[in-house]
């Protein structure tokens, strides 16, 4: 506009973001017992494997839905995070992960590896029975082979949580739950930060500062025991 190369500023047509002063969304997480109870209650659900993977790896919604089988090494028990599925109007789009730090490799526990092996066999059987093509090779797809829509995942999550009778948390809060459980289990913050794809351990502890009091109490007890012996 200043240079006179356009006749109007189209940005004037946009709506500015809403700014809310004095409001902050309190993080809501489940305890390990609540998470265990929820997973046991949905074991027969079609969403079980997706939710289990999200709960036990701390991956974001789009990262769970966007993982292709080529990024899963079940023999080495590792999973590479380098892309995600985004919601684009009524469809989906494959995109890079949120940031450079979000590109990461996650180690998988034996239970998760066994679950993914079983899921892989089930998926291959379904593909053979329907003779459908799955060129992208996503771990999680719709019956027609297309990626699962992120919004549909969130809607199904809300329904399952409501039916469970547990405290209601968002799908993204599974990520917070995973991180909090790791920190309370005394997993080094550097490891937790790497698993989540955070920019630094300092950022991780800023986000999960609610876990600090318990960690500090454990540290104080450990220090006392190291110097003076068990009480």
Description of the structure:
The mean pLDDT is 86. The chain has a single domain (26-213), classed as Orthogonal Bundle (hpI Integrase, Chain A). The strands form two sheets. Strands 1-2-5 form a three-stranded antiparallel β-sheet, with no helix packed on it. A two-stranded antiparallel ribbon has the order 3-4. It has nine helices and five strands; from the N terminus they run H-H-H-E-E-E-E-E-H-H-H-H-H-H. It has helices spanning 32-41, 48-57, 61-65, 110-130, 150-164, 173-184, 189-196, 201-207, 212-228, and strands at 72-73, 78-81, 83-88, 91-96, 104-107. The protein is mainly alpha-helical. The radius of gyration is 21 Å and the shape is globular. Helix content is 45%, strand content 10%.
């Amino acid at each position: 506009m200043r240079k006179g190369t356009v006749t109007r500023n189209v940005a004037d047509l946009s709506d500015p973001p809403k700014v809310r002063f004095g409001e902050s969304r309190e993080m809501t997480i489940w305890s390990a017992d609540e998470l265990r109870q929820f997973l046991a209650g949905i074991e027969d659900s079609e969403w079980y494997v997706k939710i289990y993977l999200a709960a036990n790896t701390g991956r974001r919604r789009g990262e769970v839905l966007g993982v292709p089988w080529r990024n899963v090494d079940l023999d080495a028990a590792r999973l590479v995070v380098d892309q995600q599925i985004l919601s684009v109007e009524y469809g989906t789009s494959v995109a890079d992960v949120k940031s450079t730090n979000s590109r990461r490799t996650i180690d998988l526990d034996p239970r998760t590896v066994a679950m993914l092996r079983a899921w892989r066999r089930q998926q291959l059987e379904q593909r053979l029975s329907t003779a459908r093509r799955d060129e992208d090779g996503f771990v999680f797809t719709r019956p027609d082979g297309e990626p699962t829509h992120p919004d549909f995942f969130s809607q199904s999550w809300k329904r399952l949580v409501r039916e469970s009778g547990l405290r209601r948390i968002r799908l993204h809060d599974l990520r917070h739950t995973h991180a909090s459980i790791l920190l309370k289990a005394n997993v080094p913050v550097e490891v937790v930060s790497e698993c989540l794809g955070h920019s630094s351990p300092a950022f991780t502890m800023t986000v999960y500062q609610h876990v600090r009091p318990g960690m500090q109490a454990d540290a104080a007890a450990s220090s006392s025991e190291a110097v003076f012996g068990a009480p």
